[in-house]
Structure to design on (109 residues):
């Protein structure tokens, strides 16, 4: 019998309300051991890197397609939206400063 299952089956003699906690502790122990071994494996890390690179390439390509579709419809691209957002933030800051300055000048008058 696998160590996890033998450890779980030995818990059945304990108080029932502790079973879930004990089961979780055993599960956590074996899961941590699995990931510790997996993350030290060069083969696993290489596969992880390749999958991450592929996922990032797919994401970049999807974003390009979305930008081209938006441009073809006369809509702003993500970059255009970022620039507009930055300009709006600057204008909001300037309006806040001017509002405080007007309030101060009104109090002095």
């Amino acid at each position: 019998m696998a160590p996890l299952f033998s450890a779980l089956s030995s818990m059945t003699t304990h108080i029932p309300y502790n079973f879930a906690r004990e089961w979780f502790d055993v599960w956590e122990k074996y899961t941590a051991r699995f990931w510790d071994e997996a993350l030290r494996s060069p083969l696993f890390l290489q596969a992880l890197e390749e999958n991450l690179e592929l996922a990032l390439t797919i994401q970049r390509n999807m974003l390009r397609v979305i930008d081209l579709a938006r441009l073809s419809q006369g809509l702003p691209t993500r970059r255009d939206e970022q620039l507009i957002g930055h300009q709006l933030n600057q204008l909001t800051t300037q309006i806040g400063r001017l509002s405080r300055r007007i309030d101060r000048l009104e109090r002095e008058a």
